[in-house]
Design a protein that fits this description.
mainly alpha; two-stranded antiparallel sheet; 56% helix; elongated
Length: 308
C-alpha cells in the first residue's frame, strides 16, 4: 500500500510538472501572468484552489483506504495473505502471470547452449496492449489522413508548411529591410536597385543636384570628390541624417531604410558619368579600395544633396 501511495503521488507530481514545463516553453510564467486581467487572475486562482482541494482529498482518500485495509488485515490475518488489488492489476496488465520455478519445465524450449536455456513465456500484457494500440492508431491515422478522412494528407501538410514559411520569410525580409542602417547597408549596383533608386532621386533630389547629378545648389555627384566620404556607408549616413548647416535635410523621416539604400546606390552609380553642366569638384578625392565600390557607367535619368 505504501508503494501504491508513492506511485500515485509521483504520477500526480509528474503530470503537474509536465504541464508547467509545456507552458513555460511557449511563454514565461511571469510574462503570462502579467498579460492577464483581474478576472482571468481570479479564475486562475479559483482553479488552482479547486485543484489543490482535489489533490488533498485524493491524498486523504488514499490514507483512509490504507487505514481501513490495515484494520481489516489486523482483524482477519487470512485476508493479509491474499494478493492486493495492485498485485492483481500488475499480474493482469503489467507483468502477466509467470510460471513458478517448479513449473518452468512446461515452457522450456528444446534448444540448449552450454547449459543456457530459454523459456517460452507469454508476451507481457502491457507490451501486447501497446502493440494493439499502435495498430489502432495506424488505422485511424491512415483513414483520417487520406481523402476519406477530415485530416490533411502529407502533401497538404507540406503545402501548408510551405505557405507558413513563405509568410515568415516575408516577415523576416521586412524586418531585415527595416533594420538597414549605415553599419550594414549593402553596395548593390544591380539594375533593379538603380532603377528604384533613380526614381526616388528623380522625385526628391533634382532640385539641388540636377537630373544628371551634375550639381546646382548641392554638389556635383558625378566626380570623385566628396565632402563627407564616398563609401556606401558615408552616402547612406548623409542622406539619412542630412547636413542641416548646408541645407541638406535629413531624409530618415520621409524615406524608409530600404529606400535610402536604393538612392545611395544610385548616387554612387553616377560617378564617372558626364553631366551637361557639371559643378566644380568639392571636398576630397575618394579612392575606392574594393573592386565592387566603383561607380557604374549606366545612368538612370534622375537625381539629393548628398555631398552636403
Amino acid at each position: 500500500m505504501k508503494k501504491t501511495k508513492i506511485a500515485l503521488l509521483v504520477s500526480m507530481l509528474a503530470l503537474i510538472s509536465r504541464s508547467a514545463m509545456a507552458q513555460e516553453a511557449e511563454k514565461g510564467l511571469f510574462e503570462t501572468l502579467g498579460e492577464m486581467d483581474s478576472s482571468q487572475l481570479t479564475l486562475l486562482i479559483i482553479i488552482m484552489v479547486v485543484l489543490g482541494l482535489m489533490v488533498l482529498l485524493m491524498i486523504l482518500l488514499i490514507y483512509l483506504t490504507s487505514f481501513i485495509v490495515a484494520l481489516l488485515n489486523k482483524e482477519n490475518p487470512e485476508m493479509a495473505k491474499e494478493p492486493s488489488w495492485w498485485d492483481n492489476f500488475k499480474e493482469k496488465f503489467v507483468t502477466g502471470k509467470l510460471k513458478p520455478i517448479e513449473e518452468e519445465e512446461e515452457i522450456l524450449l528444446d534448444h540448449n547452449y552450454d547449459g543456457i536455456v530459454e523459456l517460452d513465456n507469454y508476451m507481457p500484457p502491457w507490451l501486447k496492449y501497446v502493440f494493439y494500440g499502435t495498430i489502432l492508431f495506424a488505422v485511424v491515422y491512415l483513414v483520417n489522413n487520406t481523402n476519406v478522412g477530415f485530416g490533411k494528407s502529407p502533401t497538404e501538410e507540406y503545402q501548408a508548411e510551405l505557405a507558413e514559411e513563405a509568410i515568415a520569410a516575408e516577415e523576416r525580409k521586412a524586418l531585415a529591410l527595416a533594420s538597414i542602417d549605415e553599419t550594414n547597408v549593402a553596395l548593390d549596383q544591380s539594375q533593379t536597385m538603380l532603377e528604384m533608386g533613380g526614381t526616388i532621386f528623380q522625385n526628391n533630389c533634382v532640385a539641388c543636384h540636377a537630373s544628371d547629378g551634375g550639381g546646382g545648389v548641392g554638389p556635383n555627384l558625378t566626380d570623385k570628390f566628396w565632402l563627407h566620404g564616398g563609401s556606401i556607408s558615408d552616402v547612406f549616413s548623409v542622406i539619412k541624417y542630412g547636413v542641416p548647416e548646408k541645407g541638406m535635410i535629413p531624409w530618415q523621416d520621409q524615406l524608409s531604410p530600404e529606400e535610402i539604400q536604393q538612392v545611395a546606390n544610385f548616387v554612387l552609380s553616377l560617378e564617372g558619368t558626364t553631366p551637361a553642366n557639371p559643378k566644380e569638384p568639392q571636398g576630397e578625392e575618394y579612392v575606392r579600395e574594393t573592386e565592387g565600390e566603383t561607380g557604374g557607367e549606366e545612368t538612370v535619368s534622375n537625381s539629393l544633396q548628398v555631398n552636403g
